[in-house]
Amino acid sequence: MGEVRFDANDVANIRFAISPLWETVASLRALADPGRHVVHLPWIKTARTAAQGRDLAARTAPLLGLTGRDGSLPAFLTPPPNCPLAEFEEELAIVLATPAARVRADLEATQPSSFARALAEDPERELPRLVDAVRGWWLAAIEPHWSRMRAVLEADISHRARQLAEDGLAALFDSLHPTLRWAGDRLVSTDPRSPEIELRGRGLPLTPSVYANRCVLLAGGAASSPVAIYPARAVGTLWEGRRTDVDGLARLLGRSRARLLGYTSSPSTTTQLAARTGLSLGAVSQHLAVLREAGLVTSSRYRREVNYTASDLGAALLDRA
Q: Can you give the residue ranges of the HTH arsR-type domain (predicted)?
């Protein structure tokens, strides 16, 4: 049992974040223990086949050499995300810059292996090999599916942000996972593996994950903030085929607009929608404008991206169909 203690500054610094590096590393747990990650069996079958390929196996050998039987890896491989949607290469750069003392300290908690010993002896030489191994696994197993994963994670954040606005902080924390509850000025976890954490003004990034099967509280360090990683909502929809060609909606809206509305059940950009439907960017923009004027979709901007999401009315239409 553990807890995270907040002060006023910490409450003000609660934020959401998505980490492609965390998903890449955490996916190895699903590969190591399919029984605990049944929802990912379609991905596990293809990923396991890819992992057995000669070239990928050779490239990812340093990473797999550090992986425990339960999929555990050294903590320095999962730095807390610094922004709402971190870029994979930015996170890898943070790993590559890990001080040698931190690398050696984190390796003490991992299973001994020939690569672990080589990494502990000479982090400056071996850390680039490890980073390239993580990159290889990302490119082969995660990056081809990342747009779908990110859509699920962004939809979760959108739901949580609305919950925070409507119901407050206590309701938000109480709903993240059954092992968590808000108690006055602290977040209490009944998981015996959870640490005691004093935030001291560092805030707490809340990070949804498609591969997490429990809530994970990471204490952070002198140069990084703690982070709470929790299972994202609707992960069960990640690998199932989506039926967006709904006859009833097609008669009402037209076939192209009905398909677009179906794909906005999770946040999507015009580029993503064009790729999924085969429509041109111009046609997608025109149809989205009509759907937005009708109150069926909403738009939100993040950096240079505009994401379109089905509104409550649009979602009700999809559910009815």
A: 248-319
